[in-house]
Amino acid sequence: MTDYVTSEVSGSGKTGKSTAADRWLLRQLYKIVGEPEVGLELWDGYSMRRQHQVAAVKFNDRRALQRLFFKPTYTFGNLYAQGRIEVRGSLIATMETIYRGLAKHANELGETARWLRRKLAYRPRPNSLRRAKDNIQTHYDLGNDFYKLWLDRHYMQYTCGYFPEPDCSLEQAQIAKLELICRKLDLQPGETVVEAGSGWGGLSRYMARHYGVKVRAYNISPSQVEYARRQAQIENLSDVIEYVEDDCRNISGTYDVFVSVGMLEHVGTKNYETLGQTIDRCLSDDGRGFIHTIGQISPRPLNEWIERRIFPGAQPPSLAEMMMIFEPRDLAVVDVENLRPHYAKTLEHWLSRFAANEEEITRMLGNEFVRAWQLYLAGSAAAFTTGGLQLFQVLFKRNGCATLPVTRAHLYRPGLLQACPDEAS
Amino acid sequence: MTDYVTSEVSGSGKTGKSTAADRWLLRQLYKIVGEPEVGLELWDGYSMRRQHQVAAVKFNDRRALQRLFFKPTYTFGNLYAQGRIEVRGSLIATMETIYRGLAKHANELGETARWLRRKLAYRPRPNSLRRAKDNIQTHYDLGNDFYKLWLDRHYMQYTCGYFPEPDCSLEQAQIAKLELICRKLDLQPGETVVEAGSGWGGLSRYMARHYGVKVRAYNISPSQVEYARRQAQIENLSDVIEYVEDDCRNISGTYDVFVSVGMLEHVGTKNYETLGQTIDRCLSDDGRGFIHTIGQISPRPLNEWIERRIFPGAQPPSLAEMMMIFEPRDLAVVDVENLRPHYAKTLEHWLSRFAANEEEITRMLGNEFVRAWQLYLAGSAAAFTTGGLQLFQVLFKRNGCATLPVTRAHLYRPGLLQACPDEAS
ipTM score here? Predict the structure, then answer.
């Protein structure tokens, strides 16, 4: 608290001139979040500036300041979305410095305070079949037209891309991700694949077209299934891909390969036992599988605002929690890759496309929605860079499976980056 | 039990002619181990042959058969070492088919029987500082001359090698393993490394010579430390490597890199919290680390005979158990590679060199020792191929560390295999 300077400017008068109590609250709040390198400003122009601040956060009314003080992690998102808190400067950089401050503050807490924090922490409820469907519709059925405005053109991947080179395009990164997954699974022509949570069908189409496999894909989002079916028809892949509008817990049949990209974060750890049973039931005796999911550095709930307002029911697992799927079934983990810097980069791409289409999205879904999503995307980018979010790709196999290559060198043969120009848009 | 044929031959009479009770016992034993594709033979020549048997197991006396029946997983090793059980055919193939049979039998058990098996399973005691030292001396201080007879010439690596090509030599595979570890850690000249459990000093010498780092290496085996110090002197590396004869729980100082190869399997899961604290204490704010260890497909004790007779105190962890080191300290897991087929291959190399030096080893340590170790090496190879043993390489970092490469492509640049000819023997 030594290296900031305060200034008083004649106020706007919106909620009157800030009082000594308001300014005391502001200073306390600043301490609680670990004194990040951001300036703070009140509605009347009163400001606390840092010498090396990356951005400034402005409170537009007294109630916003008070609410944030009493429940910062939840209310910040809502207040930002409503425009009652504004950020001047990079939103990602602001969130990064706040995450760093919070981590520093947490480290300085004693054991008891940390234990209390864990006990009082927000816990999302587990997902029943019915609730899972509601949660997914809240997020994924916002409209295909909305997602088309800022996801990659070819495969509509609403999951982390893979950047073989730092400056490759979002389209290239998403194709590289799909190709990397197929290489990890070492797909062979004629094999059968079951996909749990298939999004707009990009992975299944890529696998069928480039690797000659047959895919059965489960998804509980009606608008995604409809889009995926139409797209498979257009690309003449309807006879090798079957889209099933159902919960993946109801998978029937046996397959050479199980694959799931961006679904596990919605499942909830209490359902991992059931998911393990499902995989065990549907995988052939020498089968193998792959799960790509957002994860946490240690077992902890997602940010409460994200979980309640953006992704209802989301619960990214720690790596130990993920093992609850595999270890009770004697499924051997072959390879784990943490792609967290790739998700930060993917989110930056999404954010800049989102900004480029801000006017249209505002017309579609309103200003509050746009601000909430910009915060969600920026905050996630920051959490992948400096917070606890991870991106785990886990390759596993039946103990008896001897078909996977014994080294990973084949993953890095040429073609990860060059695949893009071949794809029709 | 349908496809075997029995035959009676006039017996040797060593413990008399086999009785109906002996033969009943033999059949029950055969069922218990899941009816593997091995023939069985009694001391008097009575035999049960399988149509497609990979080998034959012979009991040389009645007591051997009885003992095996009542405690098969523990007594088999002792009886084999004593020559009271003999195997005709490949020892690895025999152990593989037995492991497969046992897994099949376990799958057929009900939930209650499996629960009872887990409850009754052998549990090794955790290692105190004193006990750890005793345990390690039992195994590693058998004499450097003994290990020199069958380990690789250059670096005396008594851990899993890495075979970039299936037919590369043991020497090449061990150098490739050392190089792979350095690449995973992305070592930079001038950095400081602390090593926990340094064996005969091969990794520290490789790191210091090829990557220009300074290493402080902890080991509780006096004969290994003595060898490592002498070797560092010979290679003019004494000013950049310090060998400390002490338990790694006593590590002092802070370092850019923590590395441990082939030690964690001796630590015991109850000590992981302490190990996590040690790593947390000794790692710089943007530090990274690497652990290479034998693991299990799920939490379970090591084979009792191996744990009691060969590796006292050994307790390979499951991946979830390993996470107890990292997750409470917010150390992010970056990369996990399971090298289990590479360990099977390494063990085959060791076994064949062991066999080539059988006479000399017998002179040094006796016939029973030689038979016990051949079974241990062959049984381990089989457990890595068909049983529950895994080999985990885990790369981790402080949450704040941003120095590691974002893809793994650099691991597979040329040089993994070519490094061998440059090394002086």
Answer: 0.92
